[in-house]
Every structure is written in structure tokens, then in C-alpha cells.
What does this fold into?
Amino acid sequence: MKDQDKTPKVSAAQNIGAAGHRQRLRERFCRAGLNGLQDYEAVELLLSYAIPRRDVKPLAKELLRDFGSIEGLMDAPMHRLIEEHGMGMSSALLVRLIREMCTKYLEQRVRETDVLDAPDAAEDFVRMKLGGCQSETLMTIFLNSHNHIISYELTPGTVNRASIYVRELAKRAVLGNATGVILAHNHPSGVCIPSQDDIKLTDNVAKALETFGIRLYCHLVVTPSECRRIDVRQP
It folds into this structure.
């Protein structure tokens, strides 16, 4: 699918001017990274690789205005980018690819880390993975005896319907030889305040895991910009 072009045709001279502008953006980025660009210019530079024959500055400003920030843009559903902003599949895929690569970077960075000694790294990964989800998603992180991540699982749905999942979670932790678990889930509302259901789930999972000698370390509640920690209550 080709990117839609809602702008008027431009002359050869205008094309040359636009090419020079994009080159200057690249040079500024090479010199100073994102600190050398305004947010709309960073988005403009990104889009220029997917839409090379169009002035994308108006589109970059429109996207930031509608989604509020680069963070909001990266978390935006692809269908909104395509249907509401006429970006086309290739440019929408580029935005999604950048986000997924950032998530993979954070995941690989935390893999060989003692997540209890470096909680910020784990929280950044969880926020990037879950924060932009449009529906509530439960994440279970399984840890080994060195507190390194063995694996993680995502379960769609709301946590207050997770009573059956508690038993399955404990079973998978045992089969995976995990010695510890971290729970996490997102609040699509953007309000990063643990609910009573969140606290109840934390207690239930901790008790179920304790039966098998496995420790639940904490339960993280995240939005794109925040992370709140529910600590396990001692009996």
C-alpha cells in the first residue's frame, strides 16, 4: 500500500529545497542527537524515510498536536495513524517498528541484570511493553535464582477476572524452574493508582506461589509515564 499524499504537487525547485532541509535535519541529528532537534523535527526526520517525496513537517506537527507527545504518537494504534492522518501503511509500520525495537532493546538490556538490584531497568521495560496497550494486560515475569529474567508471559483481559489464572501462573512458575516472580499490568485509563482488585490479586498470587517455595517480589502497575509498585504484604 502506498502512502497517501494529501499535499499539492510541488515544483522541482521546491523538491530540491525540501531535500536540503531534510539533509540539514540529518546533520543536526548526527551532531547532537535528539537534543539537537525539536520534537516535531524528530518526527519529521523519521517520516522522511517512509515518505521521501513529500513535505512531512505539517504532518509531524499534526501528529504531535493530536497525540500530545512523541510518547503518545509511539503508543498510537496503527489504524488511527492510517485512517485519521493518512500516513499509509509504510510510515505507520515505521513508527510501530521504532517502538518495538525500543522495547526489545530494554528487554535485552534487562535480561542479564539482577532486576532486584536494578529496579529502574525492569520498570522501564514493563512501561514500554505494557504502558501503551489499549486494553488491560497482565504480565508475569519469571526469575531464576540470580533474579535474572527467564521468560515472561502476557495475558489479555482484566486482572479482576484472573482467579483461574493464579493457579495456572503457579503451575507455569514451577514447570519453568522459577524461584521468583514479578507481576505487572497496565491501566489504560492513564491513572496509575492500584485498585483493591490489584492488591487482592497480589495477595492471592503470593499465597499460591508460596506453597511451592516461589516468591512474588512485587506487582507493578504502569501507564506510559508512571509506575507504581504494590509490595507483597507479610502475613
Remarks:
- The beta strands are 137-143, 149-156, 180-186, 215-222, 227-231.
